[in-house]
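Same chain as my last thread, 296 residues:
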Amino acid sequence: MAFYKTSLEMNKFLEELLDRFSNEGRLNLHQSISITWISYPNRSPKAQSGLGTGWLNEKLIYPASVVKLIYACAIEVWLKKDLLVDCPELRRAQANMIIHSSNDATSYIVDLLTGTNSGIFLKEERWEVWKKQRNLVNDWLSSLGWPELEFVNCSQKTWEDGPYGRDRKFYGEQNQNRNLLTTASVARIFEGIMTNNLLTQSSCKRLKSLLFRSLDILKRKADPENQIDGFLGEGLPRGSQIWSKAGLMSEARHDAAWLQTSKGNPMLLVVFCMGKDLARDQFLLPALAAELIKWE
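reply #2:
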């Protein structure tokens, strides 16, 4: 059962929109996109208070940098349990991981969360211990008991070129152990942050400040990797606000965003686009957001 109330009207609207975008020349779009779309009729939304729908939203997909959202939440949980020591360097890494999507910062944070590090191959018992520790974030997600988090995998670092040494072995010969999330799982986590339901109020406030994106044109031009242009935020009208975490690689263009226009209700939209063609498509996500915010 979904954590939101399913809307047949929203489902029809979304399907017709996908048909239109598919007919514009995006072959196999229906098989290459995953969406969770939720609208909150109350302008002060509470957890699980939305109306929504999805498209392939339970499909496990490589999340690229969207997984950094999970690691940012885990930091707050670990701190509350005294499993980490709060310090400026940890906060610098957390900020750079979310604001600038730094892979170096992410690598450092995964090491801290799991008590592991990258390096040469390990043998026997040391290797088994290392693997168990690398799954500590998955253990936390499982402890939440949310059906949307079943079968997800958040145990890998993010890379510029790819993993080496023990990290490469941990991926598996066919990359079968790579990170995997669904748009539904990301939406559930994102909603928990924005409604102060997942973490303490102070932790949620801190993450919201990191996820907030400026739509100012001049600021975006000064930052070519602004996570707005080519993503959902580009499709929003002037006066809107957005909190988001994007992911981009050669075969993926993803975005997870909480949207608020000047007139409409708050909206949560998570879209995973798979394949080289959609990864290069800088127009689909903005167009999708521009159309979905029209629905009321």
